[in-house]
Amino acid sequence: MEGRRYERVSEAVRLELTELIANELEDPRLAGVEVTDVQVAPDMRKVAISVHIPAQGAAADEILEVLKTTKGFLRHELAVRLDLFHTPDLYFNSALNLGTRERVNKILKRIKRGRPRD
Questions:
Q1: Is residue 7 assigned to a domain?
Q2: Closest alpha carbon to 95 in 52, 47, 48
Q3: What does the pLDDT look like over 8-29, one tens digit per residue?
Q4: Is the backbone of residue 32 left (phi > 0), alpha (psi -120 to 50) or beta?
């Protein structure tokens, strides 16, 4: 039963952050940034947020810095929009891009079948 609560909270946080980043933050550098995964800590005081950043390299680091500087605003908006006892602290990190994720999944499937190489 407790696991369902974490799932509900993480999905609510993901949806709200997706909307906030797309609509409320007016920084053009954040165009195309998507929230891919949200992991809530067991005590619900911390949230690890994985974002997909279309740019690579220095631009990706710059976008993560922009998200870290807007963390206070995003946390305040989450407190207003979600009815949680404690508003969790937000930690942003870059998710693997979709091409890399597919490649990793393909390699893992090959290893599982016993054929690690082509």
A1: yes
A2: 52
A3: 888 999 999 999 998 888 888 8
A4: left
